[in-house]
Amino acid sequence: MDNTAKTIVCFGDSNTHGYNSATMGRFTEKERWPCLLADLLGPAYLVREEGLSGRTTSFEDPLFEGLSGFAAIHPCLMTHEPVDLLIIMLGTNDVKQRFAATPANIAKGMERLVTKAIHTTEAWRGKANILVIAPPPIEEGYKGTQIQGEMGIDCVEKSQAIIPLFREVAERLGCHFLEAASIPGMGMYPYDYMHLSLDSHRLLAERLAELIPGIC
How confident is the model over 65-77, as a mean pLDDT? Predict the structure, then answer.
């Protein structure tokens, strides 16, 4: 292992874990965006996958344990220290109807998460360096798919509304920001309309590979 390599932690949900809604399985290491990013960046970087299906910014899920990003971020960062860049792509699960959260509530969850990461000072190689990615919004086609009952109502609108709020949080807390939906060609698989397509994993990795050398 090259101890001079910069460590990047990719902290997210199923779209970081690599859920493949076409097969209800997982994309391979040759397909998931963190793995592709590692290949594109080369040996100067160590890219660590920390994706968990169902993870939220800060909400405790009443149906499944261990899904709060806020609760997990400290041990995650300490596991991979010293960390040079933390990439956070969360928010999609926060729009589930059972959380009854407004877009402003979800943005506050992201703010709590980022603030805790910043203050995990012993994990950083230098000062905190965080990239917040607003995930692509859920698409209308989700209605009638297998995830309609899981997500409930209003998830499309909320997933769209959190994008500018996440931008504001990132800018106010001194973080970098990327709107994933702004990447040309980005989209969801037409099996549930909330999980990244195979091409979108590649597109996200390529965009990050362009961006990261300028910030880390």
Answer: 98
